[in-house]
């Protein structure tokens, strides 16, 4: 019988390696001496020493070609939460993840590290210092979260020492950093539309925002500590910055850093949540006719108006995790990385000219077209 030669433990594949987190992970793996193959539906960059394979993770044959001489796989691909397409989330996050597991097992991959999400336990109500043993959300707040729950279960259940196939799930929360296509761009877009004037609720709700390099560090530690005799097998781990911050302080620091005003006026949480629910139902009803993407979804309002921060004690204990970049440094680096999103300054004007321009802007806002 021919014995399969085990590929080097430093040969890995990153599914979703063209995305925001995936690309940071690839760059760090290369720095650490790993040889990396990227598998993604899109190719957005090139890095010397990294091979790119464009394909859909629902296609097992395409995956098998890439995974055949790899011992370690990171799976951080997902459709964007903003697409709100239930069928696509099921196809990619649940069915596609089953295909990834089958392909890994057939190809003889030994370790699979899934990027899950701390939101798998979030139901839209406060979570303070949540541990990994909180139950999965019974009523997940959106389709994306619903499928992230199923995805995590499928991956953790596949962990088998007998089959020499070990799995672990990393649950990050509120990832931010350079090149993030979501958090800062959505924030700036909302500010530019003049909609960032309001604080939802009393503004004291604490939230985890996690710098992307810390999330990458958590993934690599998990890969390096995942062994048949380690406690990591088949378990989920929160990876955060371990510095919960008021949601609205974080938003304000990023906005002010980029030259925009911080929100000032308070709106009751239940009122905004109710309006977001109503808008969401209307968009669902109208979907066959027109595809509207509201800024204020119930999930976003819940994220903006409740406490949701998590303990990463388990990751500290089992894999020696500690954040490598502190929150204030992370915010400063992130702000500096978006020069193109800075508010454009008015050229130097006399007081009366500046007043006329400001007045004109206010007036144009109340114009009826
Ligand atoms: N960003 C955050 O705050 C958080 C993210 N996560 C999780 O982290 C992971 C990475 O997120 P992030 O980097 O922000 O997301 P991105 O959208 O930036 O990256 C995901 C990548 O996966 C690709 N992809 C989508 N569908 C497929 C498919 N069928 N086959 C192959 N590749 C595919 C995407 O391509 P394309 O862009 O063309 O669709 C994209 O390149 C996700 O699993 C997400 O659920 C968890 C918690 C928080
Ligand atoms: C902590 C965590 C899980 C963050 C996830 C990132 C996004 C969900 C947020 C990034 C920008 C946020 C944002 C809002 C909601 C949550 C985000 C999309 C609002 C739409 C909330 C309501 C407002 O007043 C405007 C906000 C713009 C920015």
TrEMBL record:
Start and end residues of each 3-beta hydroxysteroid dehydrogenase/isomerase domain: 13-267
EC number(s) stated in the UniProt entry for this protein: 1.1.1.170
Recorded catalytic activity of this chain's protein: 4alpha-carboxy-5alpha-cholest-8-ene-3beta-ol + NAD(+) = 5alpha-cholest-8-en-3-one + CO2 + NADH; 4alpha-carboxyzymosterol + NADP(+) = zymosterone + CO2 + NADPH; a 3beta-hydroxysteroid-4alpha-carboxylate + NADP(+) = a 3-oxosteroid + CO2 + NADPH; 4alpha-carboxyzymosterol + NAD(+) = zymosterone + CO2 + NADH
Database matches in Pfam families: 3Beta_HSD (PF01073)
Keywords: Acetylation, Cholesterol biosynthesis, Cholesterol metabolism, Endoplasmic reticulum, Lipid biosynthesis, Lipid droplet, Lipid metabolism, Membrane, NAD, Oxidoreductase, Steroid biosynthesis, Steroid metabolism, Sterol biosynthesis, Sterol metabolism, Transmembrane, Transmembrane helix
Domain of life: Eukaryota
Primary localization: endoplasmic reticulum
Gene3D superfamilies associated with the record: NAD(P)-binding Rossmann-like Domain
Pathway the protein acts in: Steroid biosynthesis; zymosterol biosynthesis; zymosterol from lanosterol: step 4/6
Membrane topology label: Single-pass membrane protein
GO terms under biological process: cholesterol biosynthetic process
Enzyme class: oxidoreductase
Subcellular locations according to the entry: Endoplasmic reticulum membrane; Lipid droplet
GO molecular function annotations of the record: 3-beta-hydroxysteroid dehydrogenase [NAD(P)+]/C4-decarboxylase activity
Membrane-spanning ranges: 271-290
One GO CC annotation: endoplasmic reticulum membrane
Quaternary structure note: Homodimer.
Family: Belongs to the 3-beta-HSD family.
Full protein name: Sterol-4-alpha-carboxylate 3-dehydrogenase, decarboxylating
Organism in which the protein naturally occurs: Silurus meridionalis
Organism lineage: Eukaryota, Metazoa, Chordata, Craniata, Vertebrata
């Amino acid at each position: 019988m021919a014995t399969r030669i085990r590929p080097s433990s430093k040969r890995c594949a990153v599914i979703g390696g063209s995305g925001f987190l995936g690309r940071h992970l690839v760059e760090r793996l290369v720095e650490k001496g790993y040889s990396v193959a990227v598998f993604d539906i899109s190719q957005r960059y090139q890095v010397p020493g990294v091979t790119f394979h464009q394909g859909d993770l629902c296609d097992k044959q395409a995956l098998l070609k890439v995974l055949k001489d790899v011992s370690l796989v990171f799976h951080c691909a997902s459709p964007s939460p903003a697409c709100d397409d239930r069928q696509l989330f099921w196809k990619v996050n649940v069915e596609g993840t089953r295909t990834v597991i089958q392909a890994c097992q057939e190809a003889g991959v030994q370790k699979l590290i899934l990027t899950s999400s701390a939101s798998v336990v979030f139901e839209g109500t406060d979570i303070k210092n949540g541990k990994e043993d909180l139950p999965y959300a019974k009523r997940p707040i959106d389709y994306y979260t619903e499928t992230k729950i199923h995805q995590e279960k499928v991956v953790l259940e596949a962990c088998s020492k007998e089959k020499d196939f070990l799995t672990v799930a990393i649950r990050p929360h509120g990832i931010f950093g350079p090149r993030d296509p979501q958090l800062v761009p959505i924030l700036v877009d909302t500010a530019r539309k003049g909609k960032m004037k309001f604080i939802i609720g009393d503004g004291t709700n604490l939230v985890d925002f996690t710098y992307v390099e810390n999330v990458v560090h958590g993934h690599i530690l998990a890969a390096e500590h995942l062994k048949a005799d380690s406690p990591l097998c088949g378990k989920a781990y929160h990876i955060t910055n371990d510095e919960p911050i008021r949601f609205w302080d974080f938003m304000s620091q990023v906005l002010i850093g980029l030259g925009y005003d911080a929100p000032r006026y308070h709106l009751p949480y239940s009122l905004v949540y109710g309006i977001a629910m109503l808008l969401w139902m209307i968009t669902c009803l109208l979907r066959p006719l027109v595809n509207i993407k509201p800024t204020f979804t119930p999930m976003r309002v819940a994220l903006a108006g409740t406490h949701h921060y998590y303990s990463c004690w388990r990751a500290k204990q089992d894999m020696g995790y500690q954040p490598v970049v502190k929150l204030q440094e992370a915010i400063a680096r992130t702000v500096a990385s978006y020069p193109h999103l800075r508010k454009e300054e008015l050229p130097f004007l006399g007081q009366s000219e500046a007043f006329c321009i400001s007045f004109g802007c206010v007036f144009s806002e109340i114009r009826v077209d």
